[in-house]
C-alpha cells in the first residue's frame, strides 16, 4: 500500500498569527477516519508570524518532535529549559507525567516548523527534553537518523518503536528507503519537489506506505522527513 496525500487536501487552520495544515485530526478538525497512522498521532505544518506563537500550555503522555525549517523559535518549559531553535534544529519532548512549555516567534521573520506527536510505549514516564542541531551537509543526499528507540550518541532516544530520518537531496539525485517486514512509514516533503515511487510530491505533500520508497529529484532539490514504525 502506498498513498499520496497532497498538501492542498490537508485541513487549514488560522489562529492569531498561526497558519497550520493538519495531517490528522487536531483541535477543531475531527475526522474519525483520519485520527492517527500507527503510533503517529499528530503532524502539523505550522507557520508562525513574528511576535506570536504558542503560549504556555501543558502536555501529558505524548512524545513530541519539532523540526525547524525557517526562522528562530524561542522555547521555555517547566523543567527550566530556555533556548532559541533555528533552522535544522530538532526538539524532542517526552511529556510523560506532565510538562508545560511555550514556543514563541520573538523575531521579525516567520517561523516554519513541522510538529509531530507520537504515542509513547507506556504512560506515566518521566518528562524529558533534548535538542540537537544538524548542518545541511550531515543530511545531504543521505538518510540522517535523527531519533530512534535505542538511541546511540548521534540519535536521540524516543519512548516508542519509531525511527525518524531526514534527507536534503540536491537535484538529480536518488535514494532508496528500505522498509522491513511488518513496518510502515509516513513521508513528508517539507521543501522542494521529488518523485516518490513514481508519484510527484511537491512542497508539503505527504504519503503513507508499507512499501520501500524510491526517491528521485529532477531539477529541484527536496527536504524530506520519514517516520518509520511498526505496522499496526
Task: For this entry, give a set of tags.
232 residues; mainly beta; 7-stranded mixed sheet; 7-stranded antiparallel sheet; 22 strands; 0% helix; 55% strand; globular
List the helices and strands and how they pair.
Layout: E1 2-5, E2 11-15, E3 18-22, E4 40-48, E5 52-59, E6 63-70, E7 73-77, E8 82-85, E9 89-94, E10 99-105, E11 111-118, E12 128-133, E13 144-148, E14 156-157, E15 162-169, E16 174-177, E17 183-192, E18 194-196, E19 199-201, E20 206-209, E21 213-216, E22 222-230
Parallel strand pairs: 13-14
Antiparallel strand pairs: 1-20, 2-3, 3-4, 4-11, 5-10, 6-9, 6-11, 7-8, 7-10, 9-12, 13-15, 15-22, 16-21, 17-20, 17-22, 18-19, 18-21
Mean pLDDT across the residues is 95
Number of domains: 1
What is the CATH architecture term?
Answer: Sandwich
* Shape designation: globular
The CATH superfamily title: Jelly Rolls
How would you characterize the largest beta sheet? Answer: 7 strands, mixed
CATH domain class name: Mainly Beta
Could you characterize the architecture of this molecule?
The chain is mostly beta strands and 232 residues long. The chain has a single domain (2-230), classed as Sandwich (Jelly Rolls). Helix content is 0%, strand content 55%. The protein has a seven-stranded mixed sheet, with no helix packed on it.
Structure summary:
The protein has strands spanning 2-5, 11-15, 18-22, 40-48, 52-59, 63-70, 73-77, 82-85, 89-94, 99-105, 111-118, 128-133, 144-148, 156-157, 162-169, 174-177, 183-192, 194-196, 199-201, 206-209, 213-216, 222-230.
Amino acid at each position: 500500500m502506498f498513498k499520496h496525500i497532497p498538501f492542498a487536501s490537508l485541513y487549514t487552520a488560522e489562529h492569531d498569527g498561526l497558519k497550520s495544515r493538519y495531517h490528522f485530526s487536531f483541535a477543531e478538525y475531527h475526522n474519525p477516519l483520519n485520527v492517527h497512522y500507527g503510533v503517529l498521532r499528530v503532524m502539523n505544518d505550522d507557520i508562525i508570524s513574528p511576535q506570536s506563537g504558542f503560549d504556555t500550555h501543558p502536555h501529558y503522555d505524548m512524545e513530541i518532535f519539532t523540526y525547524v525549517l525557517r526562522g528562530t523559535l524561542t522555547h521555555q518549559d517547566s523543567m527550566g529549559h530556555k533556548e532559541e531553535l533555528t533552522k535544522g534544529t530538532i526538539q524532542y519532548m517526552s511529556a510523560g507525567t506532565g510538562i508545560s512549555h511555550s514556543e514563541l516567534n520573538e523575531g521579525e521573520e516567520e517561523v516554519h516548523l513541522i510538529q509531530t506527536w507520537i504515542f509513547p510505549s507506556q504512560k506515566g514516564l518521566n518528562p524529558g527534553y533534548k535538542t540537537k542541531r544538524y548542518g545541511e551537509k550531515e543530511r545531504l543526499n543521505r538518510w540522517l537518523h535523527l531519533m530512534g528507540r535505542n538511541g546511540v550518541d548521534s540519535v536521540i532516544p524516543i519512548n516508542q518503536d519509531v525511527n525518524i530520518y531526514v534527507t536534503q537531496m540536491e537535484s538529480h539525485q536518488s535514494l532508496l528507503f528500505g522498509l522491513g517486514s511488518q513496518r510502515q512509514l509516513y513521508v513528508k516533503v517539507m521543501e522542494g519537489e521529488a518523485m516518490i515511487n513514481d508519484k510527484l510530491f511537491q512542497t508539503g505533500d505527504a504519503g503513507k506506505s508499507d512499501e520501500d520508497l524510491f526517491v528521485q529529484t529532477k531539477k529541484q532539490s527536496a527536504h524530506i522527513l520519514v517516520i518509520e514504525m511498526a505496522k499496526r
